[in-house]
Amino acid sequence: MRSQEDCICGGYRPSTRESSEQTGRRPKLSPLSSQNDPGPSSVFARISDRSDRTTLLVWSLFFGLGLLLIESIYLYCKQGPFFGALGYWGVPLTAAYLGVPLLLALLVGGRVSLWKALVIIAVIFYGIESTKMFVISAPLLGSPTALSAFVLVSLLMFVALLFISKRLSLDPSILVWFVWVYNASCYAVGFQWRTVGGDMAVFLRSPSVLAIVAVGAIGFLCVVWISRQARRSVVAGALGLATATVVVTVMAGSASAGRGVESAADDRLPDIYIASFDALGREDFDRCCAASDGAAARICSRGLHFENIVADGLATYEILRANTYGGRSNSSCEDSLVGLAAAHGYDTSMWLGRKGVRIEGADCYDHYFSGRGRDIATRFALPAVTDHVWKALYSGRADSREEFIESQTMLSELSARLSSQRPHFAYLHFLDLHAPYRPSSLTEPSAHDEKMDRFMRSCYRVGCDLSANEALIAYAKLSFERSLPDIDRHLSQLLEIAESRERPYVLIVTADHGELFGQYDGFGHTGGFVPELLSVPFVVYDSRYDYRASQDCALALSSSALQSLVQRTLANDLELEPGTLLDPASSVEVHDSLGVATIVARSEEIQFRISERMLEQSGTSRNVHLQREGTLHYPVRSCAEEMKPELTD
């Protein structure tokens, strides 16, 4: 028998396995070793044998289900509904997530091992997610950060290709777990950033993000260590059990019914409708009323006007949450507006004009609408990307308002929901006025969309030079104003729905905040404690009374005003006499991620204090204030002589 040395010199080199058998020792291989890893002598090794085609297909299906579950959990953590609202769209959605891995398995099953097939799938999924995040966030990232992200994506793709082509040997679990941890971190960071706002470069240095990265890194190292110490079958079983626990918890939470209390309803109680319009300032609504000859004119001429209502912040979802609970300090469904209505026998519902978004407090309602079927399906990564690419190829550009739900659809869904004769409490939030502004009266939509796309990229998302973009800003503001008549149309349909029930009803027309078009060098609605953003309309229209455009000039937050009015209505105190509904406040305090602002009635001023983490954004659209503390003029309206409401037929 030739010695090992003779074999090497003679051109024969024993394999790693043969060498280890002769020496009785198992070779030590680093994660980056170029030697062939013999793998564990366990069931896992046999499962990963590429000759087992059936097992390969089974594992690919499990991996597809895993991607679907990760996406579902992500949407749930974003406060987004998923399976419950998919309907029959759940079938093609599931087929997509199972079909892609299965197809890839059939293509590569005869050429690469199981782990490399899974890595191909993971890399493709990672590439889709990264591309989606890059496209969405590129205007806000800035060129250096965006370029760094692109380089990172390319580098990881290059490493994956080397591994797949057998030019680089990696412990497969390390690569798979790295992709998983990276995606989870991106989700966490992206969700947190969208919640608090601010520039991405500044935000990435914040303690919260550093903590997320640290936890992800520690978790990644722990998984790698466990996978090298224990049988992979044990690790897989533990992960499967953990995943099943999370899924069951999520499904149980999403399937929880509203907290309505079954009780006998008083036939005298009216239906209550809250019609909230995104980005509609008080002065804009006044112009809408003056120009209208339809529903808006009817509501304004017969309604009760609260002239000094202040938005409960600058961020839409936080404002909707505060209005639902009746204040920022409350977090109990039982004490919320919805809980109070349910306790009096009301059916309750909320209708949000943005796809796949679930605000905090949504569980308080008996029914919550944020899209159906395809609306929710396209919030998942694979359908979203294919849908986006298809629209771009078909029309030359992607629809920038694709994430919104048509108000007509919301009203049709509401009408179908109002089948019971029990009184109903409905909160509707319309996004017709939200950027990019697209009035229904457009005659040249292609030219309009091209201009608004430039406005969104050049000014709305990042701020711009006012003098250099004067014409573009003027066009955007004109488009916003041309969208105001759409309010009249939606209010008209809502009144028709309410009157078709042949019940008394109360309609409250309000907004979450206003909108800036270059004032204070700002755009949008998230960056300033200024009257244009904080002053919102608040008109109460009661089908039984004619208030003859009476005014109530009490200073109050929108959430406080809603709480008082709903309580008075539920107490059957139906004659809403002006001047007696709200406790007059000498000042109100607005809390937001931007900071804190106090509006003082006597001095008619806003006293603001900007939060520490938003100071670096001073002078930008995310913080139009140049100082940390300061004051601005806030016009407080005074009222004419109060008038008594008249009972109508």
Task: Give the gist of this structure.
The chain has about 650 residues and is α/β, with parallel strands linked by helices.
Radius of gyration from CA coordinates = 30 Å
Overall strand count: 18
Q: Number of folding domains?
A: 3
The CATH class name of the largest domain reads: Alpha Beta
Determine the CATH superfamily of the largest domain. Alkaline Phosphatase, subunit A
Number of helices: 23
Task: Describe what you observe in this structure.
By secondary structure, the protein is α/β, with parallel strands linked by helices. It folds into 3 domains: about 30 residues, no CATH class; about 210 residues, no CATH class; about 300 residues, Alkaline Phosphatase, subunit A (3-Layer(aba) Sandwich), CATH 3.40.720.10. The protein contains 23 helices and 18 strands. The strands form 5 sheets. An 8-stranded mixed β-sheet has the order 5-4-6-1-7-10-2-12, with helices on both faces. A 4-stranded antiparallel β-sheet has the order 14-15-16-17, with no helix packed on it. Strand 15 and strand 16 form a beta hairpin. The longest helix is centred in the last third of the chain and has 31 residues. It is globular. It starts with a helix and ends with a strand. About 35% of the residues are buried. The N terminus is likely disordered.
Q: Key features?
A:
alpha/beta; 649 residues; 49% helix; disordered N terminus; globular; four-stranded antiparallel sheet; Alkaline Phosphatase, subunit A; eight-stranded mixed sheet; 3 domains
